[in-house]
Amino acid sequence: MINYNRILAFNVIILFILQSFIVIQCQAEEPEITLYFNGRLPYIGYDSDNKLVGINYDIGEKVFSDTDIRYHWKQNPAARFMHYFKENTQPLCLVSWIYTAEREKIGKVSDITYVDSEYVGVVAADKHDQFNSRSLTEIMNDKNVTVLFKKGYAYSSVLIGMMLNSHANMLDLTKDQEHILLMIAEKRGDIAFFSAAELPYIFSIHPTLNKKVSILSFPLLSADRTTRHIICSKQVSDDQMNKINASIKRNIQLK
């Protein structure tokens, strides 16, 4: 006599094994994600012991280490990995990068990981009065003003839009923010922009800069909240993005 219960139990076991095999195989086929960074303390960079540290590094480790996603960090010039991102040549993520509509259009954007502090303008100390009396819109539309910036760097949401439409002399540099601030102090440019969070770190390395530059506050710079996210290329799967967002909810507390 046929034992239908035994046959049913056997089929259930086979089905379970097949499903498990498919899940394991799919997980194994998920490519390892490269977390690109260019090095910009206090956000991310190497300390004196050659260890990665910084706000973005801590966020990335909290999020990715609490998933089964395979990942590794890699330092490259911003222009290079932004090319990889735009061309969708590989599975990559940029940890705690500023949201823009363009980045969302060509990539995948996670939930919020960080809300930026105030953004400020910096000029040489003896140019304070010249620029403090002017609006940000006026400065960015003055063709006689030289703005120092680094293409591919993250700036406030408002400033990114203004840079795209600026009539000022926009001088794109290969230097990092530390060197850009030094150039402002040396009057090799009129104005540059920084997150207020990164200036204390630069001043700690170059204490005398405090007297050589002047920090200007422009309310318009922080008119819109500037949010940071984990922004990934489209080669990162939807399943991986779901895991990233679930980990953000578990591990990241916004201030």
Describe this structure in words.
The chain has helices at 4-29, 55-64, 78-87, 101-106, 128-132, 136-140, 157-164, 177-185, 199-205, 209-212, 238-251; strands at residues 33-37, 45-46, 52-53, 71-75, 92-98, 107-115, 119-124, 146-149, 169-172, 191-195, 213-217, 227-233. The chain has 255 residues and is of the alpha/beta class. The chain folds into two domains: 31-115 and 227-251, D-Maltodextrin-Binding Protein, domain 2, CATH 3.40.190; 119-222, 3-Layer(aba) Sandwich (D-Maltodextrin-Binding Protein, domain 2). A hairpin with a 5-residue loop joins strand 2 and strand 3. The longest helix is centred in the N-terminal third of the chain and has 26 residues, at 4-29. The radius of gyration is 24 Å and the shape is elongated. It starts with a helix and ends with a helix.
Keywords:
single chain; 255 residues; alpha/beta; D-Maltodextrin-Binding Protein, domain 2; 5-stranded mixed sheet; 12 strands; 41% helix; elongated
